[in-house]
Amino acid sequence: MNIVTVKDYTALSEKAARFVADRVNGKKELVLGLPTGSTPEGMYAKLVKLYREQKVDFSEVVSFNLDEYCGLRSDHPQSYHYYMNRNFFDHVNISEENRHIPIHSEYYEDESCSRYDQLIDRAGGIDLQVLGIGTNGHIAFNEPADYLIGGTHLVQLSEKTIEANSRFFNSRAEVPRRAITMGMATIMHAAEILLLAAGKNKARAIEKACSGVITTQLPASLLQLHNNCTLLLDREAASLL
Ligand code: PGA
């Protein structure tokens, strides 16, 4: 893994945006895997700025988001559909038919998962996957467990993730208990991975993800098996390395 450390969150957001813009400018029809969460918000803001300055053009980009809650309408302010529109899609020129976010269908659960993987395959596979990391080392909604699932699937969120995400909702009870997520195989098949982590509360997960031990109890540790993975960290997230 390549580890790049920058001084703070602003520098991390700037560097992440330039990294993504370079890849977008370097390949027509780039297939871009996108994360949500508080960490990439700064990157999206800088990418929008680069787009407005005509330094990057997303017109041929095909995007696939990592995950989405089950049971929230796409116009719910905490849904990842809403997040992506507000932070990114409403401000750049990725065409609507080229944006993909997994959608949970109560009636066609298995089909909605396998169809998402088929769409990624048909697009030619992910060229660059941007990731965040949970304080428990989760990647997307692949939570620490005795085993992990390869393809896109439905998950029960861990108590730690429900707790962490409750800050975005009025109460803990409102946090959805299930989500649809790309699996670790889908993520690991990306040609290149860029993981972003900022803040002291991520330091322990980053330390474990880089430790040389690979365990499903810390899904991010699997990234050590990827041959083109960059961890972009601020000083606090890197403080235990
Ligand atoms: P955060 O979430 O960016 O809001 O810390 C990251 C994640 O849980 O993957």
End-to-end Cα distance, whole Å, is 13 Å
Quaternary organization: single chain
Small molecules held by this entry:
2-phosphoglycolic acid
How would you write the strand order of the largest sheet? 1-10-9-6-2-3-5
Element-by-element helix/strand order: EHEHEEHEHEEHEHEHE
Please report the total strand number as a whole number.
10
Shape: globular
What is the strand and helix layout of this fold?
Blueprint: E1 2-6, H1 9-26, E2 31-34, H2 41-52, E3 62-65, E4 67-69, H3 80-87, E5 99-100, H4 109-122, E6 128-131, E7 153-156, H5 159-165, E8 178-181, H6 184-188, E9 192-197, H7 203-209, E10 229-234
Parallel strand pairs: 1-10, 2-3, 2-6, 3-5, 6-9, 9-10
Antiparallel strand pairs: 4-8, 7-8
Helix pairs in contact: 1-2
Residues 37-39, 132-134 line the site of 2-phosphoglycolic acid.
What this model shows, in words?
The structure is a single chain. The chain is built from 7 helices and 10 strands. By secondary structure, it is an alpha/beta fold. Helix 1 (9-26) packs across helix 2. The radius of gyration is 17 Å and the shape is globular. It has helices at residues 9-26, 41-52, 80-87, 109-122, 159-165, 184-188, 203-209; strands spanning 2-6, 31-34, 62-65, 67-69, 99-100, 128-131, 153-156, 178-181, 192-197, 229-234. It is 29% helix and 17% strand. The structure holds 2-phosphoglycolic acid. 2-phosphoglycolic acid (PGA) is lined by residues 37-39, 132-134.
